[in-house]
Amino acid sequence: MASFSTSNGDTTVKFEYTAATAKVQAVVGDAAESLWNEVTNDEGVVTNPFSSATNQEKLDVVDAYVKGVVVNLANTFKSRKAQDAARETEAADEHVL
Fold it and tell me: How sure is the predictor about 80, in pLDDT bands with cuts at 50, 70 and 90?
């Protein structure tokens, strides 16, 4: 379930998923470990092995990834719209010899 709430001019967006505790821990844990391994492999530095990560650290890794996906998708779409508008503008004033 997703929701918006507004207070004092700020909006909070929440994405909530409900399932059995074991299922949630397995899904979030596997997603977090996959992301943890990518970051570790990319940076080549292990500051904290995944086996010692807390549930909150695992959730934070997944949350940061999901936020990045949403923001990157929005930015890609924004860029595509600007490119389409520029293409239409230029097409209306094509060079002619």
Answer: very high
- Kindly give, in sequence order, each residue whose CB lies less than 8 Å from that of residue 69, ignoring residues fewer than 6 positions away: none
Question: Are the C-beta atoms of 4 and 13 separated by less than 8 Å?
Answer: yes
| Cα–Cα distance measured from residue 46 to residue 93, given in angstroms and rounded to the nearest whole number | 55
Residue 44: which region, alpha, beta or left (left: phi > 0; alpha: psi -120 to 50)? left
Decide: pTM greater than 0.85: no
Q: How confident is the model at residue 49 (pLDDT cuts 50, 70, 90)?
A: confident
Residue 50's CB is within 10 A of a number of other CB atoms, namely: 17
SS3 state of residue 81: helix
Domain ranges of the chain: 2-91
pLDDT, position 77:
98
